[in-house]
Amino acid sequence: MSTVASRPLTEIYLSGVRSWKKRIIRLKNSVITGVYPASPSSWLFVVIAILATMYTRSDPSMGLIAKIQEHLPVSQSMSTQCQAVVSAVLFSTMLWLLLIFTMRLCLKQLLSYHRWMFEQHSKMSNTTKVWVALVRIFSGRKPLLYSYQGSLPNLPVPAIKDTVKRYLESVRPLMDDTKYERMTKLAEEFESSLGNRLQWYLKLKALWASNYVSDWWEEYIYLRGRSPIMVNSNYYGMDFLYVTPTPIQAARAGNSIHAFFLYRRKLNKEEIKPWLLRSAVPCCSYQFERMFDTCRIPGTLTDTVQHWQDSDYIVVYHRGRYFRLRVYLAGRLLSPREIEFQIQRILDDPSPPCKGEAKLGALTAGDRIPWAKARMKYFSSGVNKRSLDCIEKAAFFVALDDDEQGMMGDDPAASLDRYAKSLLHGKCYDRWFDKSFSVVYYKNGKNGINAEHSWADAPVLSHLWEFTLAFDSFQLGYNAEGHCKGDVDSSLPRPQKLSWEIPPECEEQISQSLAVAQALADDVDFHVFPFQDFGKGKIKKCRVSPDAFIQMALQLAYYRDQKRFSLTYEASMTRLFREGRTETVRSCTNESSAFVRAFDGGETADVCRRLLRAALEKHQLLYRMAMTGAGIDRHLFCLYVVSKYLGVESPFLKEVLFEPWRLSTSQTPVQLSEMFDSVNHPEYVSPGGGFGPVADDGYGVSYCIVGDCMINFHISCKRSCPVTDTHKFGAQIRKALHDLLQLLSPNQKEPSKVEESRPEVKKDL
């Protein structure tokens, strides 16, 4: 009896120890990050150096130590020598802080230099070489994840005339002479009158805030949107394409959930390396802060993003029931085998859902205002509030799906399309779309991830996903039967089923939200395919950027598909600046449209080749300008926000901000290739992820360049649009890629087509 009674006390004690360890680690990291690029030990070095010079009868402080000693409030018992030492330590500390401030200021100025971005890596100027050396000197050693945050420059506000000029240039290929002349007049009126007034407020914000764009971008683009976030905002990531490490659903969940929490541990300790461009230039890491323990909370006017301290549990959804699963016991993280055991308990649990519980998640998939009102009315007290709090404060959300997904069966291409739709929206009620991310585990051992967009952009989540996939397969592995390795303690407390009391009125709202979400989900068409005829290896041999090459192929494919050009969005990042997120590269340019017209119009190969290279160079220039703060769209967006605050109308800004992006594109970067064994296990590749179409009559295209021989595409559109078709567009993309490669390397034989589908491989590592 005494053992039973002492167990809760032991749990409380060990949980407290774990909590205090985390606080100490956070405090230590705060100190290390706060004094970066110096180190805490450098303080001791400065103190010893100053004391040593004092004992040699010299005064490095030029009388300041004596001044400090005069005004030192000390007791009469302290000797003169002791007072001198204390004064010297105080002076040393002030000198050390001044040196840190100076080093950080120098690093910030150095990181404001961006000419390196516009130079070829092999033809670096002497100025840039000196700059790289200085950056490495001032960057210190072994930076933590957030070490560079205080040294990153602020995003600059471009000049109004530059932004307007770039905008007009970007829309020229999309307008006839009459429309372009009208837009030019609107732009000139804006630039000469209202624009300067709005710009003044924007410059004031840039002086005061860390980033003049990011908070407004998060609020007005994401959180104030009142339409469903499912499909319209959330995005997904896929599992390995050709491999399923284990066919056992619970085992796959056990390994990867364990890997997620190992990543969170590294994140809390700031052991994840900051992302460095060219191994020297740091990128902002602030988006990592809200990765775990985060949820979007609905509101009638605007949603909010809430982040809590480390949760010791996850919430698992299975067959209409929600379970709370603790992953820490007595202060330690459960082993993969123990998590598998707990997941299997949930899979085997025969209990039915509570009344109204099964499709509760549909509230997060429908319109935001009904969800906000329902949350306030039905979930603000009692058992419903406790259960909802449990979901929202969980580390992340897990869905155990009874379906089988992945590349499989007689039609692997169609199975990938179904897999994409399952990850993006599922059944519209079996995901919690408000959580920062939800992980889906399928019956056949496949998995995938669905992410809410407001807290961070895809490359941040992709870093977590790549780590989890690699750690699951190459570090943890499975035994011969496909189960997680290790032993299990069968006395683990069972996962706790959440309770609900859903009234009939709330059930009616759940049904209405589900109807809205289902209509949206049914309207989305997807086509996912791995392009394996060639990859970046052959593209680079043509001495062009792979990303620019793919963007030009998309322009050619879109023109052939739609017989016109459209405003094209390519996501670029501005993480070279503090709290930077994204900027738009307008990929449809005068140069790209000239090339496409010439190529499809039957011009000679030499002419087309020259026009293509000009278009590729222009795209690279636009991409670099976007990365270095000289983009168009975020500046115009912020000017529009200021105009709304001031209550003034701008015909120019109104027209600009409501132009439809009929071709929205994004590249998913591969960041942790060193964790994958591409030599011995080349089949372990993920096809990346995708998103829904931005415009009702447009396409969403996500692509991932994997290794030297593969490019994965995820294409989406609306079935209700009579002029878009993902499969036809996919065929046009394939043809355009071959045409461009043939044009740039006319003497090279057309690569032999590789079979797109390989047999599914079950691996036990």
From TrEMBL:
TM spans (from-to): 31-55, 84-107
Catalytic site positions: H453
Pathway the protein takes part in: Lipid metabolism; fatty acid beta-oxidation
Catalytic reaction list: (R)-carnitine + hexadecanoyl-CoA = O-hexadecanoyl-(R)-carnitine + CoA
UniProt KW Zinc keyword: no
Limits of the Choline/carnitine acyltransferase domain: 155-734
Record carries keyword Transmembrane helix: yes
Protein name per Swiss-Prot or TrEMBL: carnitine O-palmitoyltransferase
Taxonomic source organism: Lates japonicus (Japanese lates)
Organism lineage: Eukaryota, Metazoa, Chordata, Craniata, Vertebrata
